[in-house]
Amino acid sequence: MPDALPTHFSGYRNDCRHFNGEKPCRFKCEGGCQHFEPFGTRILIIKLGATGDVLRTTPILRALKARYPQSHVTWIVEPISAPLLKANPFIDRIWAPSFETLARLQVEEFDLMLCLDKVEAATSLAMLSKAKEKRGFGLTPLGTLSILNPEAEFALRMGTSDHLKFHENDKAYQHIVFEAVGFPYGREPYILELETEAENWAKSFYALHGVTKGPIVGLNTGAGTGFAGKAWRVEKWAALARRAQSELGAQVVLLGGPQERERNAEIAARAADAVIDSGTNNSLSQFVALVDGCDAVVTGDTTGMHVAIAREVPVVALFGSTCAQEIELYGRGEKIVANVECAPCYLKKCPIGEICLDDLRFEDVFGALVRQIRGGGGGGGGSETWNLPWHRSTNPPSSLLPPPSSLLPPPSSLLPPHARLDHHSHLQRGRKHRRTARRNSAPRARRAGFGRGR
After folding, report:
1. What tens digit of pLDDT does each residue of 71-99 get?
2. 353 is a domain residue
3. d(CA 117, CA 114)
4. What is the value of pTM for the model shown?
5. Angle at the Cα of 312 from the Cα atoms of 329 and 78, rounded to 5 degrees
6. d(Cα 336, Cα 433) in Å, to the nearest integer?
7. Strands 275-277 and 251-255
8. How far apart, in whole angstroms, are the C-alpha atoms of residue 53 and residue 29?
9. Which of 67, 131, 328, 438 shows the smallest number of beta carbons within 10 Å?
10. Structural domain of 135
């Protein structure tokens, strides 16, 4: 095998970012490259899951493009989360953690590798990758987690110290991501683009069900399987649907996945004609488009919450066993946090009956929804014809042009003011939330990301 393989032959250049080799490039050049464009800085991102964490890691792409305008980005992600990245304009290639990816990592070279996942499947890929510079997390020869740069130490400690994660930290997840790879955090928003086919499907769904008047309220009832204490009771969801319909003139859409089939069926039965069930077997891309069609979404700390944040849909977010302070709403929503002694806990199984969200007052949730509808998601009254939210603009939810790196202010100047939660209030609207928690001996779920399990 020659030391260096040729890059020029028959007028073509395989060092062009558009070159394919086994088939014509998108420009269908004949007789050589007429649209040569170098790869620039080759960047590898390893963030396999969980789905919500993948989505809230996308803000780092803006900072990368600001620092490396001429760059080529490859992202390794689990197939279940890949649809969230498929239409992302900042990503050139999406790889699954597969044998093919493992083989390519033995050959391809990168200028920068960022591993933002702590699980062994990710950190081992990070160590196998050929990159001039590596940041984030890696795997030691002993099979244990370590950091690849000093700035990642805080993110590592977020997984090892309950006191730091639950009581001391007031940084959003995105802030921690940026800090871990040595970038200033400027509250860069998520990046989630709609796929045209899914968008058209959602428009057809809403039209078929006559969703044309009044505010459209999405109830994302799922709680996932990662942690206990994230599920609001079905009778409260049903009551919220009936109240939103009767007092706000809202058309209420039930949202969820396969895990919510029985749950949503019971809610629909209790709420009668107050809800439209969107089904639980939609693809992730279709789910995103359904959420995008809402004027406000009430949700637990789940993928649906992150989708709503990404699509700039006002959110009422319910928190029980997880850390509300790690969620950045970008000024478009409210957090309602359970004021129970043992939360947050991140327990896989609750030993005392999952009382977290029972602490949330129904009137607080409904009041927050009213504020988001009247102040964020639209006008008022069911007699008014509302344009579906995708008609609000033909542009993506935020500008896709990254800010110049010289304009990024230091993270400390961008943090919102924090105040301790009032002892008698259940509402937390972006404020720092701390309490003395009682720990118990129940097993905790395995943590991924920065101390948050999948």
Report:
1. 999 999 999 999 999 999 999 999 999 99
2. yes
3. 9
4. 0.80
5. 85
6. 11
7. parallel
8. 39
9. 438
10. 29-180
